[in-house]
Amino acid sequence: RFFASNYKQMEKSPGFTPQERASFRNMTSEATGLTDAFRMLYPNASQVYSYWGMRFNMKAQNKGWRLDYFVVSKALRDCVVDTYMLPDVAGSDHCPVVLWLKK
Known about the structure:
The protein is 18% helix and 17% strand. It has helices at residues 7-10, 18-27, 37-41, and strands at residues 34-36, 71-73, 80-85, 97-101. The chain starts with 6 loop residues before the first helix and ends with a strand.
C-alpha cells in the first residue's frame, strides 16, 4: 500500500502520520457508513498510487502515495462498478482517479 522501505520516516510526513491514518480509518468505518471505494474492491492491492513526489523522480521508481480517494456512502456501495488510477496521464504530480458507478 506504500513503499515500506521508508515507512518510519513517512510517519512524520503530513498526510501519513499515525493520527491522520487512524482518523481516515475511523471516518471510513462501518459505523459512519462511509467506504473507501478502492479498498472495498481491492483490499489487498499494493503499489497503486495517485501521487508521486517530483523532487526525486519518484514516479520512475514507482514510490508514491494513494492520496486521492472516492469515499462513498452506504447507499452508493452497490453502485460502484470499478475505481482505478490513470498513472500514465502526465501533467501533475497526481494522476486522475476514476470511479465507475452503475445507474
